[in-house]
Design brief:
Macrolide_Exporter_MacB; MacB_PCD; transmembrane helix; 57% helix; membrane; single chain; eight-stranded mixed sheet; FtsX-like permease family protein; six-stranded mixed sheet; alpha+beta; 22 strands
Amino acid sequence: MFKLGLRSVLAHRLRFVLCTLAVTLGVAFAGGAMVFTDSLSSALKKNFAVSTADVTVTPASPIETGTDRPATFQIDLVDRIAAVPGVAAAVPQLMVGNVQILGPDGKPLENYGLTSFGAAWPRDPGAAPFKLVDGTAPWGGGQLALDESTASRAGYHVGDQVRIVTPTRAVTATLTATTTPAQAGAAAGAPLVSFDGATAQLLLLGKPGWTSITVALKPDSDPNVVSKAIADTIGDSVKVRTAQQVTTDGEHDLDNTFGGFGTVLLLFAGLALFVGGFLIVNTFAMVVAQRSRELAMLRAIGASRGQITRTVLAESVVIGFVGATLGLLVGIAVASAIRFGYELLDLRIPTASLQVTPTTIIACYVIGIGVTVAAAAPAARRAGKLPPVAAMRDDVHVPERSLLVRVLIGAFMLLMAVLFFGIGVGAGGLPGTVLITLGTGTAVLAIVMLNPIISRYVVRALMYPFGRKAPVTLGRRNAERNPRRTSATASALMISVGLISGLLVIGASVKASIDKSLVDALGTAEILVTNDGTPGFGAEVGDRTAKVPGVQAVQRVRQQSGEVGRTNVQVTGVSDGTLAGPVTTTFNAGSAAALDAGQAILPRNLAKTLKLTVGKPFDLKTTNGTHRLTVGAILAPNRQLNAIVVSLPTYGTLGGSPSDNLLYVEVAEGNQVAQVRTAILDQLRKDYPTIEVRDQEAYAAVAREPVNGVLIAVGFLLAMAILIALLGIVNTLALGVVERTREIGLLRAIGMDRPQLSRMLRVESIAITLLGAFLGLAIGVTFAAAVQSAMVDDGLAVRDIPVLQLVIAVVLAIVFGVLAAVWPSRRAARLDVLQAIASE
């Protein structure tokens, strides 16, 4: 029976091309994600294994910290660790992220998404995660070293002057050495600038401190014993790990890092395969219907039900196998292209040969074949139920189940979706959004179940404006004739349009909410100074800004991460007077005077999450320990202050960095904002080329840019799902032409010309397209509106439905529907009338 199924595929190759393409696209996402992440992770893990010290000591920070503001400790620990039995040498290390390296033209070097790191040249070069390639080690504030990859891309040579912007200040120093890229840790392969130890501490931290200590052991010393002795000697203030533990932790971090990237691709692979599943279901349902007499004949000559079912499933196995194979090859090609791109850009990320593991290969085939067989199974079961006597009749029909059970299940799921929506909107916040999302998924499945019932009525209503001419009426009735087929084809497009329309509404609402929140929050600060490079910038920027003529006052804002219980929070330090003008604030309880008393101010939504009220103490964990604070006031939702707010002196005691994240600049009366802005830029541009000085309107526009970027990226990937949905329409129409060959011949015989026949098929395509677009639009807009209602207190205060964009989406859907009918209509128009009438 497998041979019979294979021959059927070979005999009708064209009808299965689109099914195979749908599987290929889905598997390509999955295969590419797994190959790329496996390859890069494997290369980095190898470097971890060969470049890790015997024992590594790091500060035991109470919270997870980034590389830009890591926890530190003092030099006295080095001598205490060196005195531990079994230790041959202890070398302090310093590495901090978010350092800007400027090119000879004064512009920041393009890092292609990588973080630039600053490091201290170690006392023992053998303990460094990088090696000297050329020149001599830097010494003093006027010298530095660069990794050879960055120096080569920038055109720097030993002896050149290099400008660097560190977290504390901008410096110009002489390049005295080039190094290999760091081979281990977070800085593996990234741009790296190195200074001598004292200079590195001053420029990277603004204070004495080290981020780790690498320990070399004496011969025959047991790493586990020595690490335990170090931990016992120093106490809980440090984290002591052997080389094996560092390697294991590093591999875990890499798996998490690249696992997130792979998860995104796998999500889109799932979407592509889910949408493609509708195409496969439709194809096999139509193919079985067309071959019903052939299958009944097989039953008549002795084939059992199981053999007929297995024949159809064999066809799906062939399609799944071919699709999975092509998808795997495309995925490997995509992974190779990404790696080649990194090499072309001269980014020295550790690379290895492509890791096409047995797990990846098996997963691709399981996904491809599994999805195809699962989609074809219903049609295969119906084919097996054909009675042998059907071969003797002309009107052979594949038996179909009653829609009653399907309608009951769909109605129940729709009721559950309404319940989820109601509870979610009432709950609000993140829990409410999760419930609404769950309700939306349930609603989608419910509509898929109910679609065969509602499709004929919806199609009739949507096609009413197109008139009652014969081609229009016939095209509409063709769409109504088989509601299961029409609904399955439209459902694929419904899901894609629903996702896009939902994103459009949420994106528009986010941008409108940003505009409103900034208008409401920004008070007397006419100019805002931010950094488009690193998150923070040195305090020198604020000092120089305050000296510009026309500047009345400069208010500083600093930020760091923290934890309250198990909740991650942002901690914001503000200058005196920031809440009295530059930022417009509304207090639900308490006042800004709480900052002078060393107390904290919390926004209402965060206070609600943490279950805190005015006067209640709480413990805040930061990089330098746990601190007890008291709630002094509660703020109304405020985009500019969506964090735990403290004064700058209190912020310093919490371990915050002395670098600023934002400056509010008030212009003195009688001065033009534009002129003062230009003067500030002239003062800062040379040493800080990535500093941005904007007025309130420009600042709001920049705040909207990330939303646009996300919408564009996600929209591009969702376009793949729409492509598959349109392939489904093409497939349905093409197979419909084959199925209705005799009918088409009769229509031509009684006077329908070729243009009318093409118009009939275009109308059928438009009817299916409009059905999917209408249902998708309803689901997407409803979902987005419900999410906005739930997130009113979490920054999504304005609901904005972009009617014009949604109308354009529907118009484009109609255009695509017309294009989808081009090829099937040409096939139908080329049919010979007499042969078509004679066909069975």
